[in-house]
Amino acid sequence: MKSFVINAVAPTRICDVGGWTDTHFARFGAVFNIAIYPYVEVQIHAALHGKSRGKVTIAVENYGTSYTLDPENIVFDKHPLIEAAIKRMSIPRGAALRINIFSSAPPGASMGTSAAVSVALIGALNALAEGTLAPHEAAVLAHSIETKDLKLECGVQDQIASAYGGISLIDITDFPHTRRTAVEIPDATWWELENRLVLTYIGKPHNSSETHKMVIAGLGDSAYKDKRLDKIRKLAYRARDALVKGDFNELGKVFNKNTDCQRALHKNLVCDKFEEIISVAKKFKALGCKVNGAGGDGGSIAILTDGDMSKKREMENTLVKRGFRTIPIYLSRRGLRVWKSCSGKSK
Predict the structure, then answer these.
(1) How is the beta sheet containing 325-327 ordered, strand by strand?
(2) How far is 297 from 291, CA to CA, in rounded Å?
(3) Looking at 18-143, which runs of residues are DSSP E strands?
(4) pTM above 0.85, yes or no
(5) 310-322 per-position pLDDT tens digit
(6) Which of 11-25, 42-56, 119-133, 178-192 has the least mean pLDDT?
(7) pLDDT in tens, 129-143
(8) How far apart are CA 175 and CA 159, in angstroms?
(9) At what angle do helices 113-128 and 135-144 cross, to 10 degrees?
(10) SS3 content of the chain, % helix, strand, coil (to 5)
(11) Left, alpha or beta for 67 (phi > 0: left; psi -120 to 50: alpha)?
């Protein structure tokens, strides 16, 4: 019997300027986003024993759940995204697998975590089957699992950020087709951006698919023509240009304008908790705030501070005292990473 371990990590993302234009109802658009640590981590402990039937044990550490699947009869019930990814991928017959999934990101934090889970799991299962996947292929497959297998409302930007990493400008030419360009900046600008950003979780998860349905209903049958979406499309390019120039004042203005556009899409996209955080950020002279992802009554918000680190720490302490959670982040230069290590010997 041969045993080995496959590891995969994929970054989450924040600051998705242009979000909502990467959807089927927008048809076309552009999104700027930033891939970050905390990653999603997937580890597969595999044993190949040659028997006709194997089993798959899944441990989702963030939820404290562990259960066993029959790989030949998978039902989407406990963790549908995970189960759908396993069903899509080719698992060797007779393989006994223990799959551990973990992230330091809180569930439902509007950081593209579910996409990162799917991308990391696809990468690990693909390595198990001795396959190779380009980043774009991993992103497309992860998106297809959410939209086709699970029938969820889902944009395309999260999977691309997770598969590629780095800072991206994603042109949605004709949904779901995309063209991704890396936003190249000097190291000093990278470090400054990383130092200035504060990620704050409001303490409650959001439901991205349900939020999408709420906005779609308000946009009507010709959503792609809506002027509000057109404004959001243009902001992605402004964010890229501001960062390339190292103009953090302009980048902050773009963050604020995008959050204003989210308010205009639906009054519930920027909830009272987000407004409270934005109010605190303004008192500490922050340059801008971007509600991450779809927004709604849960999730997280990215704050771009003015570069005064003492003031930044004081703001973070104030937010924590008010019951919010600040999440340490690092910008992720890499996307999906997969590697294999031996844990035993062939018998």
Answers:
(1) 288-291, 300-304, 197-201, 325-327
(2) 11
(3) 29-48, 56-60, 65-69, 95-103
(4) yes
(5) 999 999 999 999 9
(6) 42-56
(7) 888 899 999 999 999
(8) 14
(9) 110
(10) 40, 30, 35
(11) beta
Written as six digits, the tokens of 235 are 């902001």
Cβ neighbour number for residue 284 with a 10 Å cutoff: 18
d(CA 157, CA 160): 5
Q: For tokens 């800072």, name the residue.
A: 167
The two beta strands, 167-174 and 29-48, are: antiparallel
- φ/ψ (deg, to 5) at 82: -65, -45
Are 127 and 338 a contacting pair, CB within 8 Å?
A: yes
Which helix or strand (DSSP H or E) is residue 337 part of? strand 337-342
Three-state secondary-structure class, residue 323: coil
Which tokens go with 77?
A: 């019930």
Rounded Cα–Cα distance for residues 143 and 54 (Å): 28
List, in order, residues 6 or more apart from 303 with CB less than 8 Å away.
Answer: 197, 198, 199, 200, 277, 281, 286, 288, 289, 315
